[in-house]
Write a structure and sequence with these properties.
Residues 37-109 form the Thioesterase domain. The chain is mainly beta and 146 residues long. It has a single domain, classed as Hotdog Thioesterase (Thiol Ester Dehydrase, Chain A), CATH 3.10.129. It has two helices and six strands. It has helices at residues 41-54, 56-59, and strands spanning 14-18, 21-27, 63-72, 81-92, 95-104, 107-118. It has a six-stranded antiparallel beta sheet. A hairpin with a 2-residue loop joins β5 and β6. It is globular, with a radius of gyration of 16 Å. The protein binds Palmitoyl-CoA (PKZ). Palmitoyl-CoA binds at residues 49-50, 53-54, 56-57, 64-67, 94-95, 115, 117, 119, 134-135, 138.
Length: 146
């Protein structure tokens, strides 16, 4: 629902990995309004969760959000391309401490921190739905990483 191109209701986030960091952009519009002209905080929180979750890819650790805090520092205006950045601050066993920012130019609109828990890919098999084929092998190098 955030960056999945197969979902026509996605929030239009695009991301890529650079040196273990996830960088990206998002352009919110009236569909994502809270107050007129401003992005809904829940949309920003969803973007933050997904952004921090994308760090699981360079970490090569499948995982889920256990807890997340989003700090809203400045109003997020609709119709502006905002920059996204996320990284892993610390790995402590299965606990993955992520951090990220949503910025409008030099202004940090929101910052986030989350605890993700490393799980086996079989975690998602309990839904009964088939996993995306490209998830096969996700986490294969996790045991060899600190
Ligand atoms: C090449 C491949 C490409 C693949 C490409 C894939 C795309 C990749 C992008 C994904 C981007 C999407 C990002 C969205 C991410 C979601 O939206 S995930 C969905 C929302 N989250 C969930 O559904 C999680 C639901 N919760 C759970 O399933 C379970 O509670 C958990 C989190 C797995 C933990 O359960 P558990 O495995 O039984 O572990 P448990 O022993 O309870 O906890 C382990 C440790 O963590 C601590 N802990 C657990 N929960 C908490 C908490 N809430 N607060 C503090 N500590 C906690 C425990 O205290 C424990 O600590 P220790 O005692 O070891 O010190």
């Amino acid at each position: 629902m955030v960056c999945g191109t197969a979902n026509s209701a996605n929030l239009g986030v695009t991301v890529h990995v650079e040196d273990d960091r996830v960088l990206g952009t998002v352009l919110l519009d009236t569909r994502h309004a809270g107050a007129p002209g401003f992005a809904h905080g829940g949309a920003l929180a969803a973007i933050m969760d997904d952004l921090l979750g994308q760090v699981l890819i360079p970490l090569d650790r499948p995982g889920v959000t256990a807890t997340m805090t989003v700090d809203f520092h400045a109003p997020a205006l609709l119709g502006r391309t905002m920059d996204l950045e996320a990284w892993c601050e610390r790995v402590d066993g299965r606990k993955l401490h992520m951090r990220g920012e949503i910025r409008d130019g030099e202004t940090v609109v929101a910052s986030g921190s989350a605890l993700f828990i490393h799980v086996d890919v079989s975690h998602w098999e309990t839904s009964g739905h088939a996993l995306p084929p490209h998830w096969a092998g996700w986490g294969a190098t996790a045991d060899s990483k600190p």
